[in-house]
Design a protein that fits this description.
Number of helices: 10
Low-confidence stretches: none
Mean pLDDT: 91
Strand content: under 5%
Distance between the termini: 63 Å
Structural class: mainly alpha
Radius of gyration: 20 Å
Number of strands: 0
Length: 163
């Protein structure tokens, strides 16, 4: 088989796989929303499935991203291979909705976050609403936990230097 035939076969395989993927996405769009959300929420917990769950969330309606925003923020704030994809999904929802819901989502996230993830959360918050980020950072700066306090103090200082 020549290189051209090999490339042609590879192209045909690519076309077939993409067509099948589009059919699968269509099928997900037409399943009951609660089933799809349960499936994606579970997928976001498995390292080998996360990127695919994030990819599917990108093509599904925004209401699905909103429903799983706490989980998406968790991946967007955490240093991992899917951080960039997750951050793109965070900022793909309506800015008004995100601003209205960010503080509540941040509060829920904080309840289960590791101190190192708080840096990522503060970064996300600062890109949406610096006032919310500053409020959270000040709260962290008053924490008895030295790691949380350090994150808060450093972020307060960083925000102060930006103004």
């Amino acid at each position: 088989m020549s290189d051209q035939q090999s490339l042609s076969a590879l192209w045909q395989r690519y076309v077939n796989v993409k067509a099948e993927l589009e059919m699968l996405e269509y099928t997900f769009r037409n399943r009951p929303r609660s089933e799809v959300l349960d499936c994606l929420k579970e997928g976001l917990t498995h390292p080998g499935e996360r990127r695919f769950a994030l990819d599917l969330l990108r093509v599904l309606p925004e209401e699905n991203r909103r429903a799983l925003m706490l989980e998406i923020i968790g991946l967007a704030a955490w240093q991992n291979g899917q951080m960039q994809k997750a951050q793109e999904l965070v900022f793909s929802v309506s800015g008004d909705w995100l601003q209205e819901n960010l503080e509540s989502l941040a509060e829920q996230f904080i309840a289960h976050a590791d101190p190192v993830d708080l840096w990522g959360l503060l970064d996300i918050c600062s890109r949406v609403d610096k006032k919310i980020a500053l409020k959270l950072a000040q709260r962290f700066a008053a924490s008895a936990d030295p790691d949380i306090r350090d994150a808060g103090e450093s972020f307060v200082e960083t925000l102060g230097n930006l103004q």
